[in-house]
Design brief:
The structure holds two protein chains of two kinds. In chain A, strands 2, 4, 5, 6, 9, 10 and 11 form a seven-stranded mixed beta sheet that branches. A four-stranded antiparallel beta sheet of chain A has the order 1-3-8-7, with no helix packed on it. Helix content of chain A is 0%, strand content 55%. By secondary structure, chain A is an all-beta fold. By secondary structure, chain B is an all-beta fold. In chain B, strands 2, 4, 5, 9, 10 and 11 form a six-stranded mixed beta sheet that branches. Classes of the chains: A mainly beta, B mainly beta. Chains A and B meet through strand 4, strand 5, strand 9 and strand 10 of A and strand 4, strand 5, strand 9 and strand 10 of B.
């Protein structure tokens, strides 16, 4: 398996534009996580899916952020409209349900100018 | 208030030294993870612990559930060990991590 695949690796966009980040989890994993990493706040959980259903979205900053998981092999994180303070590295991770090892994607470095 | 505290925040060591990074947490957990993040940003899972001790090569991780404390040890450190080491605790039923702020390790040749 190629691991967790995120795209794009880098995204530069103008303030106000819509941004869509994509994630393909490891085949067979039924839990998927979106994390955000900034210098100020470190790594934070944004949202957690189990069997394609959002379980915990309490970390989603505000209504500008939305995440979907239409099937077991694909998830998106959308920011609309984007703001400079959204600039961060966004990581997707997947795992099996329960306390098991989590596998991280390479991350998407988002810069909003 | 941080649910997970790591120390030290920064650490510089000479090649060959024994290194210890500490992690304390305040929440109930199902497991504790040690993660490694190299410059360039990729995050790799090193260990997942729910009790006792695990060893992988030169890396050893221990956890004391009663004291809510874990340590990551690196024996015979090498410059390629230079990275940020992050402690993450998993609460609930999955890997909804609470992260420590990370320990930035630099090993000098």
């Amino acid at each position: 398996d190629a691991g967790v695949i995120q795209s794009p690796r880098h995204e530069v966009t103008e303030m106000g534009q819509e941004v869509t980040l994509r994630c393909k989890p490891i085949s067979g994993h039924n839990s998927l996580f979106w994390y955000r990493q900034t210098m100020m706040r470190g790594l934070e959980l944004l949202i957690y899916f189990n069997n394609n259903v959002p379980i915990d979205d309490s970390g989603m900053p505000e209504d500008r952020f939305s995440a979907k998981m239409p099937n077991a092999s694909f998830s998106t994180l959308k920011i609309q409209p984007s703001e400079p303070r959204d600039s961060a590295v966004y990581f997707c991770a997947s795992s099996l349900t329960g306390p098991t090892e989590a596998f991280f994607g390479q991350g998407t470095r988002l810069t909003v100018v | 208030k941080n649910e997970v505290e790591q120390s030290p925040q920064n650490l510089t060591a000479q090649e060959g030294e024994f290194i210890t990074i500490n992690c304390s947490y305040s929440v109930g957990i199902s497991a504790l993870h040690w993660l490694q993040q190299h410059p360039g940003g990729g995050i790799v899972s090193l260990f997942m612990l729910s009790s006792g001790k695990k060893k992988h090569g030169r890396l050893i991780a221990t956890i004391n559930i009663q004291e809510k404390h874990s340590s990551l040890h690196i024996t015979a450190s090498h410059p390629r060990d230079s990275a940020v080491y992050i402690c993450a605790v998993a609460g609930g039923t999955g890997n909804q991590f609470y992260f420590g702020t990370g320990t930035s390790l630099t090993v000098i040749p």
